[in-house]
From TrEMBL:
This is Putative ATPase. CDD domains: ABC_ATPase. One of its GO terms (molecular function) is ATP hydrolysis activity. One of its GO terms (biological process) is DNA synthesis involved in DNA repair. InterPro entries: ATPase_AAA_core, P-loop_NTPase, RecF-like. Residues 185-336 form the ATPase AAA-type core domain. Pfam families: AAA_21 (PF13304).
Length: 373
């Protein structure tokens, strides 16, 4: 199942926007146009599967910070609406998940600015029309169980709980469980720390690691898995050499911990440890771990991956992205038109320019419902 559409309304600068998505979502724009809000809306869909949606919005400053602050229609509910559509390219089965978050009522057991999950709907379409698989209104939830019967979920949910997380983990509702598992596998990489205490500069536990953690803490184990388990690093070695002036990645056989270093062509007798590498070098290696790991998730999202990279590293980064697209779906938000053009050339992706129109985030040449005819 791949992500085919993303709709967001009432969230920060996203007054109302709908995106049709292919193998690569490639978004470029200046500061302040709302690129990160698009990325964040996608993250909140995953947070709904994790059961942390209300907490994530609260961390942003609560509903007063998350809500669209522009003009509204009279009588319109004050809500954040997020919806993701999915499609199985092999079976043509489509599904859709929508969640609506609003403010607590005037008299409520909740906190003043706490996000309240108001509605959730999960549908699956395999024929002429969508079939409801889960529906939540307030605390009450109904869903189709393992026998296909619509039943009332026995537990009334709290305002901060999502039905997708609660039902998906129960094992009684297969469609909710399958979607939850898909979303939990998504990975969001929005900048790796590069300070001296950064997780990416540290050794990792010697545990086979098929994909990179979001903070990059298992980077050394990801490299060790490629080198000593998969035993195929041709593309990884090429990318490192192209980006880092002919450098070679060195990954010793792990003991209790996995580690790595770089051997530079000008200093062939010495291996430079991660703590000795520049910010750009260590960030590129972390991106290599994210995009070239043994197994990629259903979606890899990158927020400004060009940060701290020397311009000469961008072609190698674009090559890694294009190679990753053969195995997964990739979402990229970037300031760099140079990187966007390189990715377009290598993957055939359409560059979408993010702009502000009357205070709202929009895609140049597209209306709120998608591309203009």
């Amino acid at each position: 199942m791949r992500l085919s559409t993303l709709t967001a309304a009432g969230y920060r600068s996203l007054k109302s926007i709908r995106l049709d998505l292919g193998p690569v979502g490639l978004f470029v724009g200046e500061n302040g146009v709302g690129k990160s809000n698009l990325y964040r809306a996608l993250q909140l869909i995953k947070a709904s599967a994790e059961g942390t949606l209300a907490r994530e919005i609260a961390r942003e400053g609560g509903m007063q910070s998350a809500l669209w602050s522009g003009p509204r229609r009279a009588g319109q509910p004050v809500r954040v609406v997020l919806q993701a559509g999915f499609e199985n390219d092999r079976t043509a089965v489509k599904s859709s998940y929508r969640v609506e978050i609003g403010l607590p009522p005037p008299v409520s057991a909740g906190f003043a600015f706490e996000p309240h999950i108001k509605e959730e709907v999960l549908t699956v379409e395999a024929g002429r029309r969508p079939v409801g698989m889960m529906e939540r209104r307030g605390p009450a939830v109904s869903a189709r169980d393992n026998d296909g019967r619509r039943v009332e979920h026995p537990v009334r949910l709290m305002n901060s709980e999502t039905a997708l997380a609660a039902l998906g983990v129960s094992g009684r509702y297969p469609e909710a469980g399958e979607l939850r598992e898909l979303l939990l596998g998504w990975r969001f990489y929005h900048g790796f720390r590069t300070d001296s205490d950064s997780p990416v500069r540290k050794p990792a536990l010697a545990v086979t690691s098929p994909l990179l953690d979001e903070d990059g803490a298992n980077l050394a184990a990801v490299f060790a898995t490629l080198v000593h388990i998969r035993q195929d690093t041709v593309e990884l070695d090429r990318s490192v050499a192209d980006a880092l002036g002919g450098a070679r990645l060195e990954v010793p056989v792990p003991g209790e911990a996995a580690s790595f270093g770089l051997r530079m062509p000008e200093f062939p007798q010495r291996v430079f440890r991660p703590e000795e590498l520049s910010d750009g070098q260590i960030r590129f290696l972390a991106l290599a771990g994210a995009l070239m790991s043994y197994r990629l998730p259903a979606l890899v999202a990158l927020n400004e991956p060009e940060a701290s990279l020397h311009p000469q590293m961008l072609p190698a980064l674009a090559d890694m992205i294009a190679n990753a697209v053969e195995r997964t779906q990739v979402w990229i938000v970037t300031h760099s038109r140079d990187l966007a053009e390189l990715v377009r050339q290598r993957s055939g992706a359409r560059i979408r320019t993010v702009v502000r129109v009357d205070g709202a985030t929009a895609i140049e040449g597209e209306g709120p419902a998608g591309p203009r005819s």
